[in-house]
Amino acid sequence: MKETLQWLGKLTVVAALVLAQGCFPPPKEVLDEANRPVTEFLIGPEDVLDITVWRNADLTKLVTVRPDGMISMPLIGDVQASGRTAAQLADDIAKRLKEFKESPQVAVSVKEVNSYYIYVLGEVTKPGKIALKSHTTVLQAIASAGGFTQYASRNSMQVLRMTKNGSGELKEIRIPLSYSDLVAGKGDVGNFIMRSGDTLVVP
User: Fold this and answer.
1) Tens-place pLDDT, residues 35-59
2) In the predicted model, what is the mean pLDDT of residues 88-101?
3) Are 157 and 200 spatial neighbours (Cβ–Cβ below 8 Å)?
4) Is the pLDDT assigned to residue 138 strictly greater than 50?
5) Are 133 and 113 in contact (CB under 8 A)?
6) What HEC string does 32-101 produce?
7) Where are the domains of the chain?
8) Quick one: which of 57, 59, 51, 199 has its CA closest to 138?
9) Where does the pLDDT of residue 203 fall: very low under 50, low under 70, confident under 90, or very high at 90 and above?
10) If you average pLDDT over residues 68-84, what whole number do you get?
11) pTM value?
């Protein structure tokens, strides 16, 4: 009897600790990453770009971003496109073309978006990879996956995201989410925009 009471006491302590952990807000780096505003589209592999060099038909072309994130241009060779905005890429191409042309004017537009995708896994109606064509929030991602199943623990969701640390190395962070808080507009983490490669897990 005494051993049973001791075991129950330990179990109660463990349960209390688990519940207490759920009361603490996520670490600052997780909150900063989740709540960082997304305002511009970043180019990625397989996106189709329309590159226009004013008054130069030979340099004006449609290109597809390779899996390594690069594109190939006449005269200047390979250029890093992935992870940049269209404006940033245009500036880089113009700078490199200055070796061959005086004051080149370059414009870049994204003709086809093929690199923006997320994964929604777990207790949703249609789990799997979802290709997206525009910025999509967490709530919109849930809707795109067909909504929750009847077994979903909707207030215990997580978004898994790969980010770079201070030394440039990739690491995974986990952003905890509560559906009730998202709908009510409460909590430490808002209804943020999903980033390409994010995985939303609904237990």
Assistant:
1) 676 778 899 999 999 999 998 988 9
2) 94
3) yes
4) yes
5) yes
6) HHHHCCCCCCCCCCCCEEEEEECCCCCCCEEEECCCCCEEEECCCEEEECCCCCHHHHHHHHHHHHCCCC
7) 27-40+115-202, 48-112
8) 199
9) very high
10) 94
11) 0.74
Question: Distances from the Cα of 104 to the Cαs of 52, 98, 148, in angstroms?
Answer: 10, 7, 52
Tell me the chain's radius of gyration from C-alpha atoms: 23
Other beta carbons less than 10 A from residue 6's beta carbon: 10
Distances (CA, A) of 60 to 93, 97, 102, 123: 12, 13, 16, 47
The letter for the amino acid at 48 is V
- 27-40+115-202 under CATH 3.10.560.10, yes or no: yes
How many Å separate Cα 202 from the centre of its chain?
17
Judged by average pLDDT, the poorest of 28-37, 81-90, 96-105, 137-146 is: 28-37
Distance CA 34, CA 175 (A): 7
DSSP category for residue 70: E
SS3 state of residue 20: helix
For residue 68, what are the CA distances in angstroms to 14, 151, 169, 195? 47, 40, 17, 19
Reported confidence tier of residue 120, pLDDT bands at 50, 70, 90? very high
The residue ranking higher by pLDDT, 97 or 17, is 97
Q: Give the rounded percent of residues in the chain with a pLDDT score beyond 70.
A: 83
At the second CATH level, the architecture of 48-112 is: 2-Layer Sandwich (3.30)
**Measured between alpha carbons, how far is 42 from 44 in angstroms, rounded to an integer?**
6
